[in-house]
Amino acid sequence: MARREKKSRNKGSAGNNRKSGEDFLQNNKQKTGVLETDNGLQYLIMEEKQGPKPGLFDTVKIHQRALLLDGKILEDTYRQNQPDEVKIEELIEGLQEGLPMMSVGSRYKFWVPAELAWGRKGTGNKIPPNAVLSFDIRLVEIC
Fold this sequence. Notes:
Blueprint: H1 2-28, E1 35-36, E2 42-47, E3 59-68, E4 73-76, H2 77-80, E5 84-87, H3 93-98, E6 107-112, E7 133-142
Antiparallel strand pairs: 1-2, 2-6, 3-4, 3-5, 3-7, 6-7
Domain PPIase FKBP-type: 57-143
GO molecular function, one term: peptidyl-prolyl cis-trans isomerase activity
Region (Disordered): 1-33
């Protein structure tokens, strides 16, 4: 019985996350400077530099602050002053789309809809189901 209650609680939370995420994205795209791709990825160019842009199969060094919409920090390399080295092709779909838009040195803010992130399943207890994620990313280097 406890298992059933937990399952039903998760289902409700997933539905609430989906609704609050959709509402957030709808309101967010009305804000000045916020752009949206055809896939629904929203972004704001915070600092634009001229230079090379990475491709999907490149490895890059990035500073990132990843948050849930409620402000919970998932990762913050700015605070650690240690950029991550990542292969773009191994990232969530929203960042695979967003990072190649950036030139080295640029800083963007991304809002990734659940469908372009971890979707209906989430990632256990760290990222809930249907969560919209917010990223503040600076492209440090193409490796």
